[in-house]
Amino acid sequence: MLMELREQLLSGSAEDYLSKLFLKIERSSLNGFTSLARESALQQAREFDKNPGKGRLAGVPIAIKECISTKGIETNCSSNILRGYIPPYDAHVIQQLKAEGAIIMGKTNMDEFAMGSSTETSCFGPTRNPWDLDCVPGGSSGGSAAVVAGGEAPCALGSDTGGSVRCPASFCGIVGLKPTYGLVSRYGLIAYANSLEQIGPLTRTVEDTALLMEVIAGHDERDTTSAEGKKSYLPIKEGVSGLKIGIPREYFGEGVNKEVERAVWDAINTLEGLGATWKEVSLPHTKHALAAYYVIAMSEASSNLARFDGLRYGLRLGEDKDWHTTFSDIRAKGFGPEAKRRILLGTYALSAGYYGRYYLKALKVRTLIKEDFLRAFKDVDLLAGPTMPIPAFRIGERINDPLSLYLADVFTVPINLAGVPAISVPCGFAGHLPVGLQLIGRHFDEATVLQAAHTFEKATFFHEKMPEVI
Amino acid sequence: MEDVIIGLEIHVQLNRLRSKMFCGCSTDYHNSEPNSHTCPVCLGLPGSLPVLNKKAVEFGIKVGLALNCTIEEETLFYRKNYYYPDLPKGFQISQYDFPLATRGHIMILGDDGVERDIRINRAHMEEDPGRLVHAGTIDRAKYTMVDYNRCGMPLLEVVTEPDLRSPKEARAFLDKLKSILEYLEVFDGSLEGSMRVDANISLKGGDRTEIKNISGFKGVEKALSYEITRQKNMQRRNIKVVQETRHFDEIRNITVSIRSKVGAHDYRYFPECDLVGLRIASWVPAIKAALPELPDAKRKRFVEQYNLSDDHAKSLTSEIKVANFYEAVAARAPPKLAAVWIADVLKGELNYRGRTIDGFSQEHMAGIVNMLAEGKITEDGAVQVIRDLLDGRGSSPDEIVKSKGLGKAEDDAVQKAVREAVAESADAVADYKAGSERALNFIVGVVMKKTRGKASPGEVHRLVKAEVEKI
Q1: Of residues A250 and B439, which shows the higher confidence score?
Q2: In chain B, what percentage of residues exceed pLDDT 90?
Q3: Which residue of B has its CA nearest to A358?
Q4: Nearest-CA distance B290 → chain A (Å)
Q5: How many beta carbons lie within 10 A of that of residue A23, not counting itself?
């Protein structure tokens, strides 16, 4: 789709295209964008119209999640504590996008500090699902997913700490990839849980995801965890014959919505029909993944969010008192309830006497989960299952029951713990709401993941379905 | 003072590095505007990530080896979590388990005059926080400003075992440590705040107090002496010394309580996942091979090679600059005489003026020593030349000797004076002949008077003796 868009922009006008998007966003009820970079984006579009240049994304507008630093554009993680913070530098991925001529059109809504699966914990209020405005778009990259699904942006970047790209991709019926840990530089991504998260694309097609990956992936010396080398993903190899797909026993059954399960099995059958073979495999430590994930993520979060004290940037309350009172007041006012909950739990888990019982134990479970995947990948090339056990739920339905929200991450968090890549592609509907198929690959084997997803997409029509809101 | 137990934690800025610990900012910030040596990384801006300065680790290993420590196979960074305005990330990247270096020792001269090893518990790396500038004193300031220029400076924290027995020994340890660090070319002690000390001190049977963040070795000595007196007085009055953190007030020369251990910090150490574990075992052999000669080895060599007294060798090797200066001079002038003049005279004159040896020319020193060796100037004259050079009166030893007439009297003039003096001192000659060796001193005195002190007393003594023997 992005390839066609580029042709269209070259023969038409980027300014017109962008203006229409902005008009649409203004009238939108999705609440997907938190801010628009209207002037700089239109200026860039006019320049493109005069001289298109050779960039692979020249003239293509892109929406950026609120937690990815954009020079000169407010970046606040949808949190009051960071309101007014304008980064003096671009994240690595933003530099890469700009170098290829992409136009940063605005920032998108998210769960506060990416803590959530529904985009309801944002200080800007919830984003709505374009397929059903009463439903959540998933999260935490709900804004990015909703604006792409709703036709307000041709593509977007999100971040995925425990499913935050794949969950909203699944709920909104689009494609979302969580790359292998270390493949995309995190420089400029405001950390929630730094050992788990990656920036990933949210697009309408698998090919678009591959194109964005070619732009944003690759080594960056400013991120020590960034892997060496640069890979190419395009053109995507088509066909799945000979591919061995593992179906994790633990990803089906109790707790999985029947319609979701049926759509995913249909998808597996489709892949089989296209020449792949499948077998059941076991990831025996899946049942411990959620506990380990939340201990690790919250522990890291309690430390990552310590810098927000209002002293250098972000929220100020007017009158300053002594240091301890001032920063405590700012943090009390600036963080929402979910951020506070995770900071408190993480602080507790790292405390003297509890560190061994919680954090170290979680790290051990993490190792076991990683070994589950490595063992499975000795036999199969890919794993397939549902991205989410349920379709999008109603806004407000679960927000007061954090545990039921956390449980929805059961199939996405193991992937982050293991560091492997996974994609969510549309594979059907549960009622009127989209369902996502999750394809999981070996470390740094995005190519096979994209290949299977692309082949599936070509053989199906789900990605062509657009919500009625458009 | 046999009941005093002292352990030190010394924060050493590895300030000979060009860039900070985790970013590319320059370490040369001392004369810069506040907050001008900063970037997103050392300011801890959201989304920034640390990148380890490998050279800093190399420097750390160097120090570890010089302190006779074991270097860990693999080293790991941790986050030390606490809130303070000088800490922009809300945590300090430090080390915890798997520090760079463990279990070492260095030798100091104890108060009993015997040299002994002081054990090092560990040496680990961390980043320096920023600097707080209080408007007024720490307890009465209306507001405080923060300067993040120092933030991210590479620090090495050296922790001793509680092996020191007096403030003087603590001082001796610090002097030795500084000397080693300067030998290794990882540290410049002349920069403000480059070495800061936390001192733990207790009296036998009592709880210990920690005096935080003392700058200056004299400060450490004073703070510890004050603390000993305070704790002794409390014991005498049967008041329990409580475990607490104290601050040394440099103006009043006292320590004051800043917090009791009851509200102690739980730093919630956990691994810094933005940095990967570093296998350093393979670095060690090359670093070890490139280690320079250290103070103790140099001192031993000076004794053997130049035939110096141990005291002179020690004095000449305590500072690398002095040692290098000495060796340069010894290459051009008699080494033993050079040692005496550098260790006993030049160092004293420099100290008196608060100057370092950088300001004195090796060539000038060699010239002075050679003139002394050749009997061309007297010792008093040589001291005068050194002082004049240091105080900017004159451009070279030759020039000063000539212009001030410091040259030793010509031989024939001395000879003449000797003949006259012997002729004028019949009584003394008679006394000498009668067996009084000391009688010659009277004649020497007459000669010195006649030559107005320009002759060398030793030489005169020899000449007088020869002249008298002729009679």
Answers
A1: A250
A2: 63
A3: B270
A4: 28
A5: 10
For residue range A178-202, list pLDDT tens digits in order.
Answer: 999 999 999 999 999 999 999 999 9
Domain locations in chain A? 1-470
CA atoms lying within 13 Å on the CB side of residue A315: 22
Q: What is the pLDDT of residue B39?
A: 97
The ipTM is: 0.95
A355 interfacial to chain B (CB closer than 8 Å): yes
CATH 3.40.50.300 fits B411-470, yes or no: no
Residues of chain A with pLDDT under 50: none
Per-residue pLDDT of A316-353, as tens digits, reads 998 888 888 999 999 999 999 999 999 999 999 999 88
Average pLDDT over all residues of chain B: 90
Distance CA B159, CA B196 (A): 12
Tokens of B460: 């005169």
Q: B140 to chain A: nearest residue by CA?
A: A322
Mutate to test the interface with A, among B45, B78, B151 (most CBs of A within 10 A): B45
pLDDT beyond 80 at B411: no
Q: Which of A28, A78, A140, A144 is catalytic?
A: A140
Kindly report each contact of residues B182-185 with a partner whose C-beta sits within 8 Å and lies 24 or more positions away, as own/partner.
B182/B319, B182/B320, B182/B321, B183/B66, B183/B292, B183/B293, B183/B294, B183/B295, B183/B320, B184/B59, B184/B62, B184/B63, B184/B66, B184/B291, B184/B292, B185/B16, B185/B292
Q: What is the pTM for the complete model shown?
A: 0.89
A164 is catalytic: yes
Q: What is the domain partition of chain B in residue ranges?
A: 4-286, 293-404, 411-470
CA gyration radius, chain A? 21
CATH code, A1-470: 3.90.1300.10
**CB-based contact A190 B47, cutoff 8 Å:** yes
CB-based contacts of B137: which residues, under 8 Å, 6+ apart? none
Burial B93-105 (b: 16+ CB within 10 A, else e): bbbbebbbbbebe
Sort out which chain A residues have CB atoms less than 8 A from B44's CB and list them: 307
Cα separation, B269 vs B124, whole angstroms: 14
d(Cα B466, Cα B392) in Å, to the nearest integer?
42
pLDDT at position A258 is 95
Residue A194's pLDDT is 97
Query: Do A191 and B47 count as a contact with CB atoms less than 8 A apart?
Result: yes
Q: Give the pLDDT band (50/70/90) at residue B1.
A: very low
How big is chain B, counted in residues? Answer: 471
Residues B173, B160: contact at Cβ < 8 Å?
yes
Q: Cα–Cα distances in Å, from A423 out to A66, A163, A203, A271, A449? A: 21, 10, 11, 15, 7
For the question of residue A232 being annotated catalytic, the response is no
As a whole number of angstroms, the distance between CA A167 and CA A144 comes to: 12
Which of A312, A324, A327, A331 best tests the B interface by mutation, with the highest count of B CBs <10 A?
A312
Statement: residue B458 has pLDDT above 70: yes
Cβ within 8 Å, pair B91-A306:
yes
Which amino acid, one-letter code, is at A59? G
For B92, other C-beta atoms within 10 Å of its C-beta total 21
3-state helix, strand, coil in chain A (%, to 5): 40, 15, 45
Element containing residue A270 per DSSP (H, E):
helix A258-273
Which of B50, B81, B274 is the closest to A306 by Cβ? B81
Q: β-pairing, A382-386 with A244-248?
A: parallel
DSSP B261: G
